[in-house]
Amino acid sequence: MQEDVVEPTKSLDELARDIRSCRKCEAVLASFGVEPRPIFRGAQDYPVVIIGQAPGITEYRNNAPFQGAAGQSLRALFESCGLADFDAKVYQTSVAKCFPGRRASSSTDRRPSALEVRNCSPFLVSQMQLLKPRLILILGSLAWEAYAAIREREEPGYCMAVFGKHRPQDLRIPDLVGRRLNWKDAVVLPMIHPAGSANGARAKHPELDLESKQMLHEELQKI
Fold first, then answer.
1. How many CA atoms lie within 13 A of 165 on its CB side?
2. Strand arrangement of the beta sheet that strand 186-191 belongs to
3. Fewest Cβ atoms closer than 10 Å to its Cβ: which of 43, 71, 119, 122?
4. Alpha helices of the chain — where are they, by DSSP H?
5. Are strands 48-52 and 91-94 parallel, antiparallel or unpaired?
6. C-alpha torsion 161→164→169→172, nearest 10
7. Using an 8 Å Cβ cutoff, are 73 and 209 in contact?
8. What is the pTM of this model?
9. Rounded (10°) CA dihedral 147, 152, 157, 159
10. How many angstroms separate the CA atoms of 181 and 188, rounded?
11. Distance CA 61, CA 55 (A)
12. Per-residue pLDDT of the chain (223 residues; tens, 9 = 90+)
């Protein structure tokens, strides 16, 4: 099993260069017609991090995270919580750093494979180690699973102890959304992804969706 570690890095800028030069998934991505282009941004000054699933096609074209409708919803949510300068403050990253492409004859993005997630996992852990955030938002099922998998490797038995589930991939919305979790010194808020494709999940779990947004507002007031 690949460990969630990378070579010691002196700065966030050096880590960013390491991530952007990574070509571990190049062959996989090429088979879906895209090039490796890790997409993330942010600075170390503000202690809030968002972890999405993977860049989408709009992010790939613009070479920046959260550029589509989901990003607009996210910015509106933060603005409603009193944070207007979202892009200047919030560090934006994802579980899989590159746009995974789309399968033939599909209008939806491909879910990154387990291999792609494993290849990126050390980078995600290093980002958190360097950023030392006080608040982490994890958006969508792939991000929830990646978070739980990292915690399980750090603390075997974590999923059973916290969620009553044996494996990260067994976790569902009621296990996570509407809860405050912890990772090192950060509060972790799992949220339903703001993409339109998650509208069904929001309609099925409106109370949990609202609770997670209220928690975000409360946590941002503390920063």
1. 16
2. 91-94, 48-52, 135-139, 186-191, 181-183
3. 43
4. 12-20, 26-30, 57-62, 69-80, 86-89, 114-131, 141-154, 158-163, 173-176, 199-204, 206-221
5. parallel
6. -120
7. no
8. 0.93
9. 20
10. 5
11. 10
12. 445 555 555 799 999 999 999 999 999 999 999 999 999 999 888 999 999 999 999 999 999 999 999 999 999 999 999 998 999 999 999 999 999 999 888 888 999 999 999 999 999 999 999 999 999 999 999 999 999 999 999 999 999 999 999 999 999 999 999 999 999 999 999 999 988 788 899 999 999 999 999 999 999 999 8
Q: Give the closest residue to 144 by CA, choosing from 88, 196, 208.
A: 208
Rounded Cα–Cα distance for residues 17 and 187 (Å): 27
Calpha distance 163→37 (Å, rounded) = 35
68, amino acid identity: G
Q: How far apart are CA 73 and CA 50, in angstroms?
A: 14
Contact between 77 and 192 under an 8 Å Cβ cutoff? The reply is no
- The length of the chain, given as a count of residues: 223
Q: 66: buried, middle or exposed (CB in 10 Å: 19+, 13-18, 0-12)?
A: buried
pLDDT at 1: 41
Which backbone phi and psi does 71 adopt, to 5 degrees?
Answer: -65, -40
Whether the CB-CB separation of 181 and 137 falls below 8 Å is answered with no
Asked if 181 and 174 touch (Cβ cutoff 8 Å), the reply is: no
The position carrying tokens 């920063």 is 223
